[in-house]
Amino acid sequence: MDVLAESRAMQAWSDRARARGERIALVPTMGALHEGHLALVAEARRRAERVVVSIFVNPMQFDRREDFERYPRPLGEDAEHCRRAGVDAVFAPAPAAMYPEGFQTAVQVARLTAPLCGAVRPGHFAGVTTVVTKLFHAVRPDVAVFGEKDWQQLAVVRRMTADLDFGIEVVGVPTIREADGVAVSSRNRLLAPADREAARVVSRALAAAAAAVAAGERRAAAVVDAATAEVAREARARLEYAELRDPATLEEVTEVAVPTLLALAVWLGGVRLIDNRVLVPEGGRDS
Predict the structure, then answer these.
(1) What is the mean pLDDT of residues 178-200?
(2) Residue 245, Cβ neighbours under 10 Å: how many?
(3) What whole-number distance in Å separates Cα of residue 2 and Cα of residue 47?
């Protein structure tokens, strides 16, 4: 497995693979790899001969300096996970390599970034789309694999990739969960034991909303109420948002008549967790 730290070295690696007629799949990460990331690697392996995992904690997408500084960075452990998973190359640039002195360019997607996380984290998605653009140029993949836990991010990257004619297939992989229903996340490492226990409320809230839809409820406000009531029962949890949105456009909906995205953001202590579920009414088709 090759470990590369400069964009030009990464580009040269990809050029050699492409000259051999090999497809390249990229799994962009911020490190602290877990089973969710490994599921993305497995999907990438199914779609390409060569798999690249990028590991870069991107300062541009953090709205709080303290959040950026405390984000876990176990690079040696991550490299070993990649080696065991059969990854062909790890691209792990330093911040100065990605954002050299004088850097002043950003890539932005408009409407899709306005609601949900975009509404409460100004500038976050400009950081995401800028770094993903740079990763795409460095790795030059045929396919890029992202997790559906970050549903809005996936939608934004798909829009950007189509709008800017990258010619890259963007693939989403369903969320991997712990045995108790908590979505696997690098941020789970930051939870105090009591908060990790309380984190189960997020998946319970999604399940409560799904149960309401299964029972025949179609009013968006009532479905959201079912989720928020569940969060309110957990004293350690603070709800940031719970919203029903069109899964593709992220426009707000008033009725669950077709498969509809329920997106949640919940704080536990100083850690923010996001999760989602597509709610499918009877007679609707899962997406």
Answers:
(1) 96
(2) 21
(3) 20
- Burial (0-12, 13-18, 19+ Cβ within 10 Å), 14: buried
Is the distance from CB of 128 to CB of 157 less than 8 angstroms? yes
Pair 136, 166: CB distance under 8 Å: yes
Q: Which of 161, 141, 156 is nearest to 25 (CA)?
A: 141
Condensed to tens digits (0 to 9), the pLDDT of residues 86-104 reads: 999 999 999 999 999 999 9
Q: How many CA atoms lie within 13 A of 254 on its CB side?
A: 0
Can you say how many angstroms the Cα of residue 208 is from the centroid of all Cα atoms in its chain? 23
Confidence (pTM):
0.95
pLDDT tens-digit profile of 134-143? 999 999 999 9
Q: DSSP character for 252?
A: B
Q: Other CB atoms closer than 10 Å to residue 103's CB: what's the count?
A: 12
Exposed/middle/buried for 112, CB within 10 Å: 0-12, 13-18, 19+?
buried
Total H helices, total E strands in the chain: 11, 9
Note the helical H segments in the chain. 7-19, 35-47, 65-70, 75-84, 95-98, 117-120, 124-139, 151-163, 193-198, 200-214, 220-232
* Residue 287 banded pLDDT, cuts 50, 70, 90: very low
What's the average model confidence in pLDDT over 213-237?
98
CA nearest neighbour of 147 among 34, 13, 264 = 34
For residue 201, count CB atoms less than 10 angstroms from its CB and return exposed for 0-12, middle for 13-18, buried for 19 or more. Answer: buried
HSE of 249, CA atoms in CB hemisphere, 13 A: 4
**From the candidates 34, 37, 124, 137, which is the catalytic residue?**
37
Tell me, yes or no, if 34 is annotated catalytic.
Answer: no
CA distance 197 to 184: 14
For the record, the structure tokens of 237 come out as: 């949890």
pLDDT confidence tier of residue 182, bands split at 50, 70 and 90: very high
